[in-house]
Amino acid sequence: MVEPKGRFPYAASTTANSITAYSIGARGDLTRASSAPVSTGTAPWLLAIDPAGKFLYAADSQSSSLSEYAIDHTSGRLGATSCLDLESRTPIAPIRIDAIQQVRPRAHA
Q1: Is 9 a residue whose pLDDT tops 90?
Q2: How far apart are the C-alpha atoms of 20 and 38, rounded to whole Å?
């Protein structure tokens, strides 16, 4: 998933329960945008970024939670802002959902 300006791609790791932020260099080279990946719930699977590029949302397939991360517009680093438990529909912390770009789910085998 790449933010709208095309500078910062993000990759979720379902085995490490994390999201890693990268930056794209002038020659197209990728470097980590932060020294360590951001921790998530169990098995982050689907990422979405709001159209303004201010927030990244991660749906966790094993913990049934939706997390929101603020995107630093200069460095691409992520800062956790809130989490929602989708099974109980109760916020673990306050959450705000802005308009999200529609993302097509991947087909499972």
Answers
A1: yes
A2: 6
